[in-house]
Amino acid sequence: MAEEGLVTECQTVELWSDIFTKASESKKLTVVDFTATWCPPCRFIAPILADLAKKMTHVIFLKVDVDNLTSVSEKYDVEAMPTFLFFKEGKIVDRVVGAKKDELVAKIEQHATQVASA
């Protein structure tokens, strides 16, 4: 399972499937960062995401390298990096494309609040 307060990197399809299934069953908001090692905006936003994970322990944060897990990124139509997908119970509820810190924080707060009040 994803560790509370950390961004969990999914390095294999099997690990992704296992962690994503458990995250979906938890009913918590799950934020997935689709990233690439060669992507400067991805490197810019990574420490910000790590900081958010520490502060927002009621949210699950996952990271998928699009070059390592192409089948996962293709499944969710990820075409630009970074792309952040927001899931509730395994279903996409929102997305942010680009290293847009303020938009990312606002969407996390919006959807995490909806989960907490549901």
From TrEMBL:
Domain Thioredoxin: 1-113
Residue ranges of the TM segments: none
Matches recorded under PROSITE patterns: THIOREDOXIN_1 (PS00194), THIOREDOXIN_2 (PS51352)
GO MF term set: oxidoreductase activity, acting on a sulfur group of donors, disulfide as acceptor
Origin: domain of life: Eukaryota
InterPro entries reported for this sequence: Thioredoxin-like_sf, Thioredoxin_CS, Thioredoxin_domain, Thioredoxin_H-type-like
Keywords: Disulfide bond, Electron transport, Redox-active center, Transport
Keyword Ligase on entry: no
CDD domains named among the record's database cross-references: TRX_family
Similarity comment text for this entry: Belongs to the thioredoxin family. Plant H-type subfamily.
The protein's name: Thioredoxin domain-containing protein
Lineage: Eukaryota, Viridiplantae, Streptophyta, Embryophyta, Tracheophyta
